[in-house]
Records
---
Amino acid sequence: MFPGRKIFLIGFMGSGKSTVGRKLAARLGWSFIDLDDRIEEKAGMKIPEIFKEKGEAWFREMESTILHDLVNYTDFVVSTGGGAPCYDDNMDFMLRSGLTVYLKLTPAQLKERLIKSKTVRPLLKNINASELINFISQKLQEREKWYSRASITIDGFEIDISHLISLVRQWKEQ
Ligand code: S3P
């Protein structure tokens, strides 16, 4: 039995968590939260600036704190940053607090998305186009051990929102 009406979307950078999260929340009539946006609001800085001025460890602490604060809320879908499940006890927290959904894509699919993306991502700052596929493959392999613990894994390349909704409804009825 899941204690809260909370859905956590997890997955690598560029996997479409925010786009899917917005659609899913709208269909459920729940709120949508973008964890990265919350961090930026609280810090009063954009993520690249946070990494530069405060460092990654500071960012991870903030990310974990804001994620854990969600324990007090229900009826939301949250898109988490690609690293969120892999630090602190964040994955355990999400697993015990609600439904975790992993949007899974291959390194090649992620590369195509990330090359086109306009979002500035500090972890990709010093990676050139020819190194990108290796970087993604390696990082994804490291992170897969957290991502793969999600309650539901779906193909993030072609997401069928209606199918996702039916999985969520099965969970809500439990
Ligand atoms: C990160 C992913 C980013 C953001 C930060 C770190 C990561 O979010 O949280 O740049 O460690 O993978 P997106 O997954 O939304 O790009």
---
Amino acid sequence: MSTARKVIIDTDPGIDDAMAIFYALESPELDVVGLTTVFGNASTDVTTTNALRLLEIAGRTDIPVAKGAVRPLTMPYRGPVEFVHGTDGQGNVFLDSPTTAVASSDAAHFIIEMVMADPGAITLVPLGPLTNIALAMSIEPSLTDHVAEIVLMGGAAFVGGNASPAGEANILNDPEAADIVFGANCPIVMAGLDVTEKTLMTTADIARLATFDNPTARHVASIIPHYAAFYRDRLGLDGIHVHDSTTISYLIAPDHYTWVEHPIRVDCGHSFSRGKTLASMRVSDHEEAWQRRRPVRILTDVDDRAVIELELGRLAG
Ligand code: RIB
Ligand code: CA
């Protein structure tokens, strides 16, 4: 019997999402049992098309794709980030249309069906706004009693944001949903900017990746230049932050990380700090709003060369 951990990846592909999905598919420690899609880096129509195409490229059309929410819970979609991910969400390579189709269930119901059919076995790996997970929790309030763990990319506990001075993009794209998810009754790991901005895949690493001779690495090598140009031109970096892959590295090699554990609320106000992930750090002082929440494992540091080598090794095939 396989001991691989069953994961559903909830995603808005997205260049770093594509890397994380392929990394997971190449990792025997993980069994990807579904992809669910959400708006974020691009519209849900685009991210769903990309999810289907990515699985075709990987030769894994056996994995179902369930289409998710097209907008946040309470506000309009903030729109695509073409300057980071391209108008197609895949670095403007404009993939052919997929030949496969989405599952009959929407993302929230797919998550509920999978978790309730296999209680305690499924780990959720959200790589985009948390709308689908929050919807699933609202439809089935006992859902997170039966989720093994949520390991999410999002948030910024002790550093500034990347979509606003306070807000990380995935959280700022649906703060109300994120605040629901951080109240989930299961272990939660937050791979936010605190650690993902310490994880740099350098230009030299990317040049190495471009020599890998397999379909998934070739696709990644074709989409990274658009992403790398953003990091070079806007941030002056010699490489890229591999935000979403951090969830996969943590799942397969947690010893490369350090963390602290505190309950989190998300600022859902409509002022400058909207979308900030607020960790309550003094146990005796917890405000009532934090008191009934489980502590979230907030990743704070990483052996970044070790995890980049791990990812490159898996993408090499
Ligand atoms: O802030 C980084 C996150 O925003 C990543 O998930 C990236 O794909 C974008 O969605
Ligand atoms: Ca993402």
---
Amino acid sequence: MNFETLSYEKKDFVGTLTINRPKALNALNRQLLTELGQFLNEVDEDKDLRCLIITGSGDKAFVAGADIKEMEDLDAAGAKEFSKLGQDVFRRLEVLKVPVIAAVNGFALGGGLELAMACDFILASDDAKLGLPETSLGLIPGFGGTVRLRRYVGMGKAKEMTYTGDHYSSEEAYNFGLVTKILPKADLLAAAEKMASKISKRGPVAVGIAKMAINESGDLALDAAMEMERSQFGAIFKTEDKNIGINAFINKEKPNFKGE
Ligand code: CAA
């Protein structure tokens, strides 16, 4: 994999993707979004990947939003097309087979918060700032922010955040459920790796199906969601990992899952 705006490392089933445009605080331009889409297509085929971490390069920002300078000359059709590019790539990320942890190491604003919210959950450094400041620019969020934020924080808070465009500290974001853990900045990546490593030792098929079931249940009526869970619970009993996990428990051993 060779991308100008991204760097990637993998160790023991855990991949770490770094958004790499530090001079622009990792702002999302067309090239970066296109490369991110290509990266996700490649990585979704990797059978040796069990958890992905996304973080930002430099010590200041996760991602400071969509690239404002690149948006300057967009007309309505161009803006709609740019929005679709970001929406499609983030949707691709959201349905990636493996869990994705956002390690938010600084500003996560606008498209940056939208990227973090398309991950499975958000760990943040103690100095991080999160928000959707688009209305300060006379814009609205365009990469899924009006859709995903309310699912994390509820309708009222999503509206407050979007209308004011305020930046929120990681502590505030933790208090209203946007962030699941706050860490000292120096420890953030190690903590994300530790959690990813733990997840990578669970049954990979089970984790992938749990991800899909949790994501999809939000869009289904309760009985349909229960039916979907039931079907998936049945399907998991056809896997080798289920035999490995249950046998290991009975024999008082640690399971060594194969992901099949
Ligand atoms: N797009 C393009 N360039 C950006 C950028 C962005 N979103 N954010 C920062 N940069 C650039 C700055 O222009 C600056 O470049 P130069 O050195 O060439 O001038 C460099 O990154 C460093 O930024 P600052 O000097 O501004 O750094 P700061 O510490 O003073 O402020 C900040 C940091 C508060 C994050 C500030 O940069 C900022 O407000 N950035 C914009 C945040 C924002 O509004 N994001 C939403 C974008 S719109 C969007 O995302 C729409 C959508 O949903 C699709």
